[in-house]
Amino acid sequence: MAASSCPACAEPCVEPRLLPCLHSLCAPCLRRLDTLGEPGRAAALSVLCPLCDAAVALPPGGLGQLTPDYTASGRGAAGCDLCADGAAARRCRTCGENLCLFCCQAHRRQKKTASHVVTELESTGDCSQAGKPFFCPSHPAEELRLFCEQCDQPVCRVCVVEGHRQHSYDFTSNAVHRHGDSLRELLRSTQQRMRTLEDVLGQIDDVGSAIRVRAEAVATEICLFARGYVKAIEEHRDQLLKQLEDLKVQKENLLHLRKAQLQQLLMDMRTGVEFTERLLTSGSDLEILVTKGVVSSRLAKLNSAAYTTHPGVDDSIQFSPQERAGQCHGYEVFGAVVCKAVDPAKCTLHGEDLRSARQNELTGFTLLCNDTAGERMGRGGESVTVTITHKDKKNCAVKSTVCDNGDGTYNVSYSPEEPGLYAVCVYVKGQHVQGSPFAVTVKSKFRKHQGVFHCCTFCSSGGQKAARCACGGTMPGGYQGCGHGHKGHPGCPHWSCCGQVKMSSDCLSRLPSDSSQRSLLRTVAL
Known about the structure:
This protein has 4 domains: 123 residues, no CATH class; 130 residues; 100 residues, Immunoglobulin-like (Sandwich), CATH 2.60.40; 79 residues, no CATH class. The protein is built from 8 helices and 25 strands. Strands 15, 17, 18, 21, 22 and 23 form a 6-stranded mixed sheet that branches. The protein has a 4-stranded antiparallel sheet with strand order 14-16-20-19, with no helix packed on it. The protein has a 3-stranded antiparallel sheet with strand order 2-1-5. A hairpin with a 6-residue loop joins β3 and β4. α5 runs antiparallel to α6.
């Protein structure tokens, strides 16, 4: 029978050996992998299979001890095992040879093989190595009919006598059933794992397809979003450019109007000046006296004409890229054209405790930025600087925090550590704002109240007659303290220790050191 081709070199498979990865290679390919023949190099413990690129461990004897692949030797086109020329037509069941018609006749004529049973080959599948005897590589005349269980390999009768005498062995026909069953069990387990892996690979392919489909859908969404966003931005750009053009035309018209008014006033003044100069230089005394009234009236009127020494229109056109500009086609856009310019002289300061503060307490005020027309800016971003210094201690400066609210207002907060008089300077673009600098009086810490904040001693003391109040009020019936309707603070909450009506205030009481007297002045808190 013609041998099959080696899967590595595609040449006829000569003495194929089986690698642990179950790929078989012919002898020339194995010799190319073998490194034993190279001087000074140790035998390889493993090699890379040229077919699957897997690192496979070699037996202790090297590549030469690999298991022969008899199945590879039997694969290929059916041929006669005797002449190797004709096509196999029959098989000898006794000796296991495939025979052509000519060799089959010669097989029957020979005395030694005349009694052999020869059968017809029904298909090329009958040309396999099944039923064909294998001979021992150590004893070529002996057929491998026994199986050594201890060495786990087929042996011949001579091998059993020489090297396997003490080993347990059995006929191959008996051993194949036991080992075949274990192989079949491993085969079923492997096939089941194969099906599981195929399912997993199928799921991976399905997920990969779903990812590609989803990615294409998201890419479409991104493109649609980007096109809409670009369209919105372009439309917003056109609106900004139109606003800019309208603002430019408006300012130019104001300038032209202002220029025309000033030119007319200047022409009137020149006319008045020329007439008056001519009158004074060439006019007679009588002419001067007669016309002086008209001339004086005209010149006085011209001199009283109201006009500013600056053009009245500035070039304050700015673009604020970070300012929110609402939505355009459902997309939020940014950027606005602004023409307002902050005027430090029109900026104002606001706050309840603008000119007073307490030691080590956080306080502050609000800066409102306005433009040259006194209108609120409505946006932030201005350069605001605040300095707070002690008037008596020049080195005692208070650190302040400026918070931009983004709407033209700025919250300034600070906490003075020492009492005294401080000077507060507020600058916008390096210039003082309206009311800057101003003085702030920092008072010492609040003196803690020793009583309770109440409106009725009777209620807050639980009805004690001896409970008194610093407000001086009393109640009928011998009660020493105040009631809801007493004189002084009728129904008004106040401190029982000093009578202060403001809850956040200094305690003004001068309590005696005698504890018994102090107990009478204090109101017992419920």
